[in-house]
Write a structure and sequence with these properties.
Layout: H1 8-11, E1 17-18, E2 28-29, E3 35-44, E4 48-57, E5 65-69, H2 73-77, E6 81-85, E7 97-109, E8 115-123, E9 131-134, E10 146-149, E11 154-162
């Protein structure tokens, strides 16, 4: 990807850099400047435990850019297209992200034969559907199309045997 120097004023003094594609969820690193994580586990009697994990973070940057095609660029840049940012980097962001996950586990001891643990994990308890990626190219027919939402609520059941 050839760097377009006209984008430089949009990138100066920012703790992240624009990446045009194939670089992750939103095409920028890092995805957010702040996040808060809380987790804990409580051990109940009879070898039963319950745990929770909550995460709240700043929404990913939503960088708008356009694609320009100019045949005179081929010899200088190796391509006839270039991406031009249409607004300063970080001036627009997706909504902040909140997720809550729960885990429940029951342990069963078999004396000298080992231990069995039955578990259930519930991810994204609130079933939030926050948008984390859209088509950002203002030149595309699919501009602003939702490309990805945060993963929906999911239940995972597990069995673990240790000896």
């Amino acid at each position: 990807f050839p760097f377009d120097p006209t984008n430089l004023p949009f990138l100066n003094d920012h703790p992240y850099a624009f990446a045009p594609g194939g670089s992750g969820k939103s095409g920028v690193y890092p995805y957010s400047e702040w996040q808060v994580k809380l987790s804990g586990v409580y051990q109940f009697p009879w070898d039963i435990s319950a745990g929770a994990f909550a995460r709240y973070q700043q929404g990913y940057p939503y960088v708008l850019f356009g694609t320009l095609t100019d045949g005179s660029l081929q010899s200088a840049l190796g391509t006839d297209t270039r991406l031009v940012m249409v607004e300063p980097f970080g001036s627009r962001r997706f909504d902040n992200i909140f997720t809550l996950d729960l885990q429940f586990e029951k342990g069963i001891d078999f004396a000298n034969y080992g231990r069995l643990a039955l578990s259930a994990n519930l991810f994204n308890v609130t079933n939030t559907n926050t948008v984390i990626r859209r088509t950002r190219n203002v030149s595309a027919d699919t501009f602003n199309r939702i490309d990805e939402l945060i993963s929906p609520r999911a239940l995972r059941l597990g069995v673990r045997y240790s000896f």
